[in-house]
From TrEMBL:
Protein known as: PH domain-containing protein
Natural source organism: Marinomonas colpomeniae
InterPro entries to which the protein is assigned, alphabetical: PHb, PHb_sf
Taxonomic lineage from the root: Bacteria, Pseudomonadati, Pseudomonadota, Gammaproteobacteria, Oceanospirillales
Domain Bacterial Pleckstrin homology intervals: 14-120
Highest taxon listed in the record's lineage: Bacteria
PANTHER family: BHLH DOMAIN-CONTAINING PROTEIN (PTHR35796:SF3), HYPOTHETICAL CYTOSOLIC PROTEIN (PTHR35796)
Gene3D superfamilies, per database record: Bacterial Pleckstrin homology domain
Amino acid sequence: MIDFDNKSVFKLKQDSDFAEKVSDFLLDDESIIDSYKSMRDGVVFTNKRIIAVNVQGITGSKKDFTTLPYKNIVAYSVETSGTLDLDSELEIYFSALGKVRFEFTGKTSMSEISKTISSYLL
């Protein structure tokens, strides 16, 4: 499992091709909503969960896939980009896991991410 406490913050940019990395792990009734990629790591939002992918090693052939089910979210916070600070942040609080934080580039639609998470929580 990804150590979200000690791992540097994911800095993510929308990348629809990154979703292919998790296709083998999806359930039959699960669909991809959106995917984001940093240098090597990434996050995929599905209709059931968030999948964080940590690419490891020199070749990148070893990967850690951490499933973060929407049903375990107890709260979340969205910080949008500003005039000088172009990055946005998403903090999600999971029961028994604690806080998970993702940082996105300025062009990311944080309102869409918020709507996605809310639609499965509320």
